[in-house]
Amino acid sequence: MRPALFDARSFFDKAWWSCQTGGQLDGLDAQEASNQTLTAALGVLTPLLGPGSRLPIEPDHALFCWDGKPKTEKPRPPKPAAFFEDLARFKQCLPALVGGCHVTAEWEADDAVATAAFKLEEAGTECVVVSADKDLHQLASRLVHYYCINKRTELTADDIRERWGVREPREVGLALALIGDKSDGIKGVYGIGPVKSKKLLAQLTSLDLLESVDQLAAMLDKSELDDFYESLDSTILMVNLPGIPGPEPIRLAPLDTLTELGLSAARLTWARLLGRCQLYAEVSSAFDESE
Questions:
Q1: Is residue 27 part of a domain?
Q2: d(CA 3, CA 63)
Q3: Range of the domain at 146
Q4: Whether residues 247 and 221 fall in one domain
Q5: CATH code at 50?
Q6: pLDDT tens, 211-264?
Q7: Which of 12, 37, 62, 75 has its CA 20 to 30 A from that of 125?
């Protein structure tokens, strides 16, 4: 089993905002705009599936996680109604197109992904997390790859160590709690930016995460502790959520399914994916017969 764990909202958001700002919806009515948006979302997803996938491992199982209840209120401008309409439609269409397990967690999607990744790592199973969420950098390890949707590449453990000034990726939550992240509603500690955060993290002597928290708290002023602990609650991932299912086999729907779903505009994108799968199957079959 080679599972891919998708923070599914990440690739939908990327496609939706790209369409809004890229002029792709100019002159389209509401239905045509929705079709174009969902086609773009599939365009982000399909290169990550099948033979020749951009992911560091070629996935044969998948878990798609959607947000339930957020841990923090995101200080972002309210989204238009069309966003939520397209999101609901995409969540409904995706299981019909791609097998695997599709789940809307009671919690945030990043915690659901973290729980699934933790279980797989404990079982000795290599997997890949697919997201644009900085919190999920914490999961990178020998068995857990992190693929960044925004950068279209894997961020290795070394990449993550260098970016955040941490010894191990699992300490990224500590860095975020110090620095904060306004876009995610994480306050952070006033006056601590990336440079000071790296200096504080460099002074840690314990590899135990709880002991590291205590060491950082001892370095901060008492007036800063409330903000630090409040931020930490938002940045440390939960890895023991109940009821999170495991990945299931990826099964790609035939081309006609797109027409049935009203997504004929995505037929070319889907045909290319199915073509890659068919070519791989034919080459594999020919190789097996030559043995």
A1: yes
A2: 8
A3: 3-160+240-256
A4: no
A5: 3.40.50.1010
A6: 999 999 999 999 999 999 999 988 989 998 988 999 999 999 999 999 999 999
A7: 12
Q: What is the token pair recorded at 10?
A: 């990440």
Q: What is the pLDDT of residue 286?
A: 39
96 and 227 in one domain? no
Tell whether 143 and 36 lie within a shared domain: yes
- 127-131 vs 101-104, strand pairing mode: unpaired
Q: What is the tens place of the pLDDT at every residue in 28-69? A: 888 988 999 999 999 999 999 988 899 999 999 999 999 876
pTM over 0.70? The answer is yes
Region for residue 3 given its phi and psi (left: phi exceeds 0; alpha: psi -120 to 50; beta: otherwise): beta
Domain end (from 201, 235, 269): 235
Kindly give the interhelix angle for 172-179 and 157-164, rounded to the nearest 10 degrees: 30
49 and 132 in a single domain? The answer is: yes
> Is the C-alpha dihedral spanning 146, 12, 251, 268 positive or negative?
negative
Other CB atoms closer than 10 Å to residue 93's CB: what's the count?
A: 21
Residues 123, 229, single domain; the answer is no
193 and 247, same domain (yes or no): no
SS3 category, 271: helix
Give CA separation, 106 vs 22, 114, 248, 288, in Å. 33, 14, 20, 45
Cα–Cα distance for residue pair 46/4, rounded to 1 Å: 13
Count of helices and strands (H, E) across the chain: 11, 7
Contact 133, 7 (CB under 8 A): yes
For residue 186, give the DSSP letter.
B
With beta carbons less than 8 A apart as the criterion, state whether 66 and 104 touch. yes
